[in-house]
Input
Amino acid sequence: MHVDLSGKSVLLGVTGSISAYKACDLARLFVKAGARVQVVMSPAAQRFVSPLTFEALTRNPVLTQESESWSSTLNHIETAKACDVFVIAPATANTINKLSKGIADNILLQTALACAKQMLIAPAANTQMLANHYTTGSIKMLKVNDIEIIEPQSKRLACGDEGNGALAEVNEIFFATARTLLKEPFWEDRRIVVTGGGTREKIDEVRYISNFSSGKMAKAVSLALYLKGADVCYITTMGNEGLPQDLYTIDVEDAKELYDYTVDAIRVAKKGKMSKTSMNNTDAPHLIQKEPYLFMVAAVADYTPAYPQKGKLKKSMLGDTWQIELKQTTDILSNINKDGLKSVAFKAEMNSQEGLENAKALLDAKGVDAVCYNLLQDATSFGGDENEITFITKEKSIPLGRADKLTLAQRIISHAKELSDA
Output
């Protein structure tokens, strides 16, 4: 899914870590998303990657000790002013400790000290260097000062040690940065429940009844909300591949599991969210109470086998024909308590004559606030990267056009925003 960062300016700081080469991939992702990327390198970083590499990737001059100029904007003051966000990836233990103390003895640290924009830091260091009490204290101090830390990974490090300290995956750094750039006050910290994928109703241990839903639309809605700053709980049958790892995901299989977890997630969402605000160098917890949302994107089976079997049923036991008794599943949207939340249903139809009216009927039949209507041609319509949606409320029907699913998801949540006053 293509995240659009057009019109945004990213300042990428690179320090002297063996993982500095991964910053090249990060710069490429920002450029691909449409952002303007400016790179600043510490002297130690230049021992690992040449500034020329970043210039080729970004088409912008790189700020270094040697290239800094006061006859142009290529200096630490103007560069710090021009960005929308400053990302230091990788950030060594040395850089982290100096940042927390306000030390500015190289070009990157001088730029950081001059920068008033949101800063994100992705540490990369030996486990013991990162766990040292000086470094842990510095990280805590940076967090108190509203600098976001993108947590490192635990794995085998370049030095041969096993443990915490490897740079976070490049995609995770990209998502965290994009979230900082795209978040909106309305969605920020608002609890959202999204369901996705087609449920799998077990016949026996190896067979199930399902549908052609790919779950891609639900993933797109979840990602769009995450990037706006929402606290998303994604309940799915399709996994979370391609989504940020810190987007909370619950894996389910059948309609009953989906119903149970959705009910529980809504209950939690209605309680509001505890957050922390930096006040006088202390973290003061407070309750964020915003009206939650439910986006019911999942394709839930209408029926499930009445008597699912243990083990694998043998073909020789079943004979030439096999009759499976089915029973109705619980209608999730009709049965959940929707008081105190806004709900958006998704309706796929193949009847061009009656499909739109069937979708409109859901507003009263299910008691939802809006319906996203999708007219399908046939089974081949499932699983594509594009979709066409009409956003329906009791007052109006708004065609959102045909587009890639993330773009459509952004249009959907833009209109869903109008459903709530809180």
